[in-house]
Amino acid sequence: MPRRFGVRAKLGVGVVVVASLIAACSNSSSPSSTSSSGAAQSGGNVTVAYLPGTQPVDIFPMFPPADDTTQEIFWFVEQMWRPLYWFGNTSGGMTFNESLSLAYPPVFSNGNKTVTIKMKNWKWSDGQPITTRDVEFWINMLKANKQDYANYVPGYLPDNIASVSYTSSTTFSITFKQAYSSNWLLYNQLCLLFPMPQHAWDKTSATGKIGNYDETTAGAKAVFAYLNSQAGKLSTYNSDPLWQVVDGPFHLQSYAPNSQVVLAANKHYSGPDKPKLSTVTFLNFTSDTAEYNELLSGNIDYGYIPFNDLSSKSRVAGNGYSIVPWSQAGMNYATFNYTNPTTGPLFSQLYIREAVQHITDQNTMVKAALGGAGVPTYGAVPNYTPQPEINGTPLADKSANQAAYPFSISSAISVLKAHGWSVTPGGTDKCVKPGTGSGECGAGIKLDQPFSFNLEYPTGVVQEAVEAQLLQGDAKKAGITISLSPVPDSVAFSRTVCTKGQSCPWQSVYAYLGGWQYGVPINYPIGNVIFECGGPYIGGYCSPTLDNLMVSAEKSESISALYSYEKFLNTNNPVWWLPLQPYQFSAVKSNLKGTTGQNVGFWITPEYWYLTK
Asked: Residue 40: what pLDDT?
């Protein structure tokens, strides 16, 4: 459920990290035009650059794990079909946005086991009202096909639902099997609810009649199979009438595989902010170089400067572009493999993880590799801007936003000497006091075992190559030998998954944008599935103490329970904390307005965008 940073903009596969970073239940208004120069133009087309290889390849809102990406969901599907609850405001924050939501704020009762939701009077593009039957259709489809949905995690939605009552066409109630924090429910479960047009989609074949097939498990499976098969036919996107019944601000005008996607304004959009542009064209490029050349030629309205070309960003600015780093919400880290028979015993020792963190100079990495625009990561909620809050209360504990083990070669050396290591700066340290007693190396670490391990990172990602080389050099000053292995990004990403029964020979790995991106459906920052015992994404780490803290934060109405989890994560270092980089360095033409602030959860709201004359 948490979206993984992964390959390029690849997001997290099937994990419900009930985690989130979000904000207060408040409305947001559309961007002010007072800061723009020139008169607003009615209509027009805006071109937007995809990162290479990220053109959407699935149009069905109940998307599988393989298609759970930023461009797939936020830049494509959710422009045409909106979830029941929308998050994100125009300052870039991830707040609950009542104005753009299809339903009014939920009402909790029964000790937070029951939630009642009243829908607004919105309509589909064909004029039919959006009703609770459309929500029921989605829930029925989810129950029957949950294993095929990217945001399904065992034990959570729909498994944790005891019953659903549809009391009218506009009101329904969900009773859960146990009580949860109302914040957690809204930000990590109710955010998943997704009305789908039952009156247009509840069919099992192209020539079949609309029915109520979803009301049985077999029928819901048949409907899902049909819709999913149609979504797999990219060449029919332009002609298939299924995909023209929408409730979002845009509908699909044209789709050209490996080339471009054109979204046109939905003239029947019910939302408060009608699209000002006629069309938005998303361009697919084969490489960063190809995109950058087009940017230099002025052929893109909303593009990006590749990290490799940041030194020449003045050329882009001189062509009438504003350069705006796109801050992202999340945490960034490399993964230790606790199950590796040789290095696993090393990483299982907290003092070893402390020493590794002490040789990690995140501030220099930000300057040297990230154009000065990243932020250090020390735990669940780094100090990105804007910081998440709920009703004015921060979701990030300040003490957990500080380095528990700040960069210090001397501190790394002292920690190792205190635990039975012979330290050789410039060489390789060795364990000289094996054992589990005070001042000894720890369980599983053998006499004369060297403090050395391999770090894998993706080829072709310049900023991570720079960071890896800095880590290697600073580690050597404390006698820690790190071998570097560039590997294809798909390999690095797959290495982070290590479940019980698997052979996991790798030692440590830094996948591209190696941590997790916050945003629906991980808006309340509790990393249950990432960090819990048995979770597949952190190399076999297990702490019952941390598990208990996460369960408490999930159920408690007090945000202080969240702080306890964050503090433990900050000091226990289950992963190797590394800087959180910007999503991209956006280049926005001066006559394109309404794009700021860029949402830290990667939602885009092009209904706010407009051109000036």
From this structure: 85
Give me the residues of the chain with pLDDT under 70, please: 1-37, 499-501, 513, 520-522
- Looking at residue 220, what is its pLDDT? 98
**SS3 annotation, 262-292:** EEEECCCCCCCCCCCCCEEEEECCCCHHHHH
- Residue 191 placed within a domain: yes
The pLDDT assigned to 501 comes to 66
Residue at 441 is within a domain: yes
Using alpha carbons, select from 494, 484, 496, 414 the residue that is nearest to residue 452.
Answer: 484
**What digits encode the pLDDT tens for the residues 311-364?**
999 999 999 999 999 998 889 999 999 999 999 999 999 999 999 999 999 999
Q: Is there a contact between 74 and 63 (Cβ–Cβ < 8 Å)?
A: no
For 161, residues 6+ apart whose C-beta sits below 8 A from its C-beta are: 139, 174, 175, 176, 177
One-letter-per-residue 3-state SS of 377-398: CCCCCCCCCCCCEECCEECCCH
CATH value at residue 366? 3.10.105.10
| Angle ∠(40,42,44) on CA atoms, nearest 5 | 105
Residue 531 lies in a domain: no
- Confidence at residue 520, expressed as pLDDT on a 0 to 100 scale: 64
CATH of residue 152? 3.90.76.10
Q: Do 234 and 148 share a structural domain?
A: yes
35 alpha carbon, distance to own chain's centre:
30
Strand 114-118's sheet: what is its strand order?
107-109, 114-118, 171-176, 161-166
Residue-level pLDDT at 67: 78
Contact yes or no for 452/431 (Cβ under 8 A): no
Query: Within this chain, do residues 114 and 241 fall inside the same structural domain, yes or no?
Result: yes
How many Cβ atoms are within 10 Å of 266's Cβ, its own excluded?
A: 22
564 plus 502 within the same structural domain:
yes
| Dihedrals phi, psi of 91, to nearest 5 degrees | -90, 0
Flag whether 309 is in a domain: no
Cβ–Cβ < 8 Å for 46, 592:
yes
Which residues are CB-neighbours of 271 under 8 A, at least 6 positions away? Answer: 82, 100, 122, 249, 607
List phi, psi (to 5°) of 551: -65, -40
177: containing domain: 3-245+583-611
- Integer-rounded Cα radius of gyration of the chain: 25
Which helix H or strand E contains 586, and what residues bound it? Answer: strand 584-589
Indicate whether 349 and 423 sit together in one domain: yes
Residues 363 and 483 in one domain: yes
Pairwise CA distance, residues 361 & 477, whole Å: 12
User: What's the pLDDT at 37?
Assistant: 52
Q: Do residues 423 and 464 share a domain?
A: yes
Q: In sequence order, which residues have a C-beta less than 8 Å from that of residue 314 and are 6 or more positions away?
A: none
In DSSP terms, 523 is beta-bridged to none
Check residue 529 and give its pLDDT: 72
At how many degrees (to 10) do helices 362-369 and 462-477 cross? 150
**Alpha carbon distance 419, 436 (integer Å):** 10
Query: Considering its fold, how many domains does the chain have in total?
Result: 2
d(Cα 455, Cα 453) in Å, to the nearest integer?
7
Position 13 scores a pLDDT of: 29
pLDDT value, residue 147:
94
Strands (E) across 444-504 are located at 452-458, 481-487
pLDDT at residue number 89: 81
Whole-Å CA distances, 242 to 197, 203, 210, 271, 387 = 9, 10, 12, 21, 40
